[in-house]
Every structure is written in structure tokens, then in C-alpha cells.
Design a protein that fits this description.
Distance between the termini: 28 Å
Radius of gyration: 14 Å
Strand content: 15-25%
Number of helices: 3
Helix content: 25-40%
Shape: globular
Length: about 140
């Protein structure tokens, strides 16, 4: 971890809430809801949060993604992005993923986006957790 960006390993929702305090409430809710969705979908996933930008990295050194991890959750000024590092390799029948590189992301602007897309996001997370660099 970078010296200029300290991390908290396995932060609880209260710690995450402190890091995103001051942002619009719908974004805070979406951030916390997406994090809860990741954790409920993959309960054994390892994660840490960057205390500078509140970006949560999931599964670093866990699923064979060359140490980089599987996904990241990042709050921005107008949306929250769930980035799947190998998103281009995933089947996305609900067409939630955006982007044109290997990494793809799901953008949400409020908790309703998480509720409405929850099952499709869960399917993407499960599929991402099974990928390996050799696939």
C-alpha cells in the first residue's frame, strides 16, 4: 500500500460512512449498499479501503488476478463506480457494464440503482470471482 494513501483492512460500514461523509446522501447510500452487496455475494472476499479517496479494493492476491484483485468500489462526485478489473471477459445480459477497455464498471447514482440491478450485479460478481488469468 502506498505510503501517501493509508488503508483500513476490512473496514466496517461505520468506518466507510465516515470516509464518504459530506457527499450527497444518495451516493453515500449507493456506496454502502454496493459494498454490502459485494460482501453478501462473496462473504470470504478480502478488502481494504483507501482512506484518502474511499476506494475499496476487493480480492487483492485472492482470486488469481496477478495480485491486483477483482474489483474496486469508488465514490465520485456524481456517481459510484463498481469496477470489475476483468469486466470485458464477463457475460453481461443486463448490459450494466460500461467502458471500452479490459476493466468495465457499473455506474450507480443512488440506492435505487443498486436495488434495481442487484441480481445482475451479483451475477457479475460471482462470474468475476471465477476468472483466472489463464482463462
Amino acid at each position: 500500500m502506498a505510503k501517501t494513501h493509508p488503508h483500513i483492512e476490512s473496514p466496517d460500514p461505520e468506518q466507510l460512512g465516515v470516509l464518504v461523509a459530506g457527499r450527497p446522501e444518495p451516493l453515500i447510500e449507493a456506496y454502502l449498499d454496493l459494498h454490502a452487496l459485494v460482501i453478501s455475494t462473496l462473504p470470504d472476499i478480502r478488502f481494504s479501503v483507501d482512506t484518502v479517496d474511499a476506494s475499496i479494493g476487493y480480492a487483492a492476491h485472492q482470486y488469481g488476478y496477478n495480485g491486483w484483485g477483482m474489483a474496486a468500489l469508488t465514490p465520485f462526485a456524481k456517481w459510484v463506480s463498481l469496477t470489475l478489473l476483468q469486466g470485458a471477459r464477463l457475460d453481461d445480459p443486463a448490459r450494466l457494464l460500461t467502458g471500452t477497455s479490459t476493466m468495465r464498471h457499473v455506474k450507480v447514482t443512488g440506492p435505487e440503482d443498486v436495488r434495481n440491478g442487484g441480481e445482475a450485479i451479483r451475477a457479475l460478481l460471482l462470474a468475476a470471482s471465477t476468472l483466472s488469468p489463464e482463462d
